[in-house]
Amino acid sequence: MTEFTILWIALPLFIGFSIPLLPSAARLLTLGIPLFSVAYATALFSRPAPLDLRLLDSFGVALWADQLSAWFILTNALVTAAVLIYSWDGPKTKFFYTQLLVLHGSVNATFICADLISLYVALEVVGMTTFLLIAYPRTDRTLWVALRYLFISNVAMLFYLVGAVLVYRTHQSFAFEGLRGAPAEAPALILMALLTKGGIFVSGLWLPATNTAAESQISAMMSGAVEKAGVFPLLRFALVLEEFEPIVQAFGVATAVLGVTYALAATDAKRVLACSTLSQLGWLLVAPAVAGFYALAHGLAKAALFLTVGQLPQRDLATLRQQPMPTALWLPLTLGGLSISGAPLLAGFGAKTLTLEALGPWQGMAMNGAAVGTAAVYAKLISLPHRGGAQTSSWPQVPLGLGLALGLLLGGAIAANVAYLDAYSGAKLIKALVLIGAGWLVYALLRRPAALELPAGPEAFEHLLGGMGVMLIVLFWMVWSWSIT
Amino acid sequence: MLHACVYATILLGFFGIIFKENLVMKIIAMDVMSTGVIALFVLVAARTGVRTPIVAGLVEEGYADPVPQAVILTAIVIGFSIQALMLVGVMKLARDNPTLETSAIEEEYRR
Lengths: 485, 111
Description:
A: two-stranded antiparallel sheet, B: mainly alpha
């Protein structure tokens, strides 16, 4: 298994950088890597004990792979494969495939590394390749959004480094366990950086604008996999060091509610999806032990939604209400939306039930509210008019690549049901249906008065940077008063 | 004392990133901040001594800790490549936004 792990980590980078030498085989080579990752995730699932690796000696790289990693790796693999199939016939150059593979590999690395410095390197590579992928169309707008993303993520990572060296000073080691017993500012700095990287609560407000401006396959990749790279270490901390669990959960609840509020206010289809991602990342954090399945369910559905919305000629919801879209596009939109709302027969149902069961009373209440909000958000998309039969001339034909990618993602979302079949009991089914019904009712009521306006201020570049300073103080207080007693 | 200077550098860099209007100035401020972080690593490494840890030398005590130095070397390379990427991006952006003022650019490309 050790050799398999090392091969699996190194291969995406190796193949990625070989692509410029073999441009004609670029797509086939690229497709091999997600398949390899699926094989690795399967191998991890079948292992009873987690894999604990220490490369070199005591100061070397520490790796830790368990079932939680396997879920995230599987998500990353399926989303990458779908993005690749979607762009198969597109005009992408070999450069795009190289970046996609490097991104896939570095996101995978964050899911198994167990020391602060490997995590730092992996996250920085994720940041750089995401920058290149967002900026790929080379319009001024994508360039600015990409620069903004890289800037924010790099400043966050500088704070992270300060935290890491403080941990080292206390324990002479960069292992995750070192956060325990380090002075309170070290966990505060590291947590703040990860919140920013992962797109959590106010530190994650860079996310809506970035996902809205990026190309749809890049948004799919970001929502499906890249942002989970920042969230995963937070889950790991919460599981390894139980004193951080309340902090992580509190941020989870706050993010879920904040994201849903933003999504309800949004009027652009892609922005609705981006804000919903913000809220779903909160869902991952509230129940770290069962987050793996939730990540898979969300990644599959959200990637499908982004790819579908990318096919619409315009994304303004008011316009879309006027002109019916083809049923071939409406159907994946509905399936994806229902899965994230937690409708039975789709993976989102099992994931949401599992998460809600794992919560304490006050978090349960807030998260049920967020679930109603999520259903209301997706009611916005599901209620859009559609027309079947002959294609109307104003709409482009649905390309084959999109159909295959959606088949993979949504087929995966249905197949993933087997992971938690216990969810299909009377009370849980009724609860899920009530939550969705309540959400649709909220939507029906909210639709009449003009949509609520949210200030754009917190999403401005300077405010995001300044927000890091504020979050640092808040986190310092939380770490100080909640976990060091 | 040295610690205070290092932390002051990091903070000044951070405030520069927030308060400078011009995008190039922001990048320079980020460089100042990362210089502070590098200095902090070097300072932590020097906690056990300042002598270079080379096996051939026969002095018994006072070696600097090589681990933070090795780690920060990686971080320097990463920081430098990110800066290079950003400056290329800024060069492209400057063609249509010659003043490179963040608030103006942000206004233009919002939504």
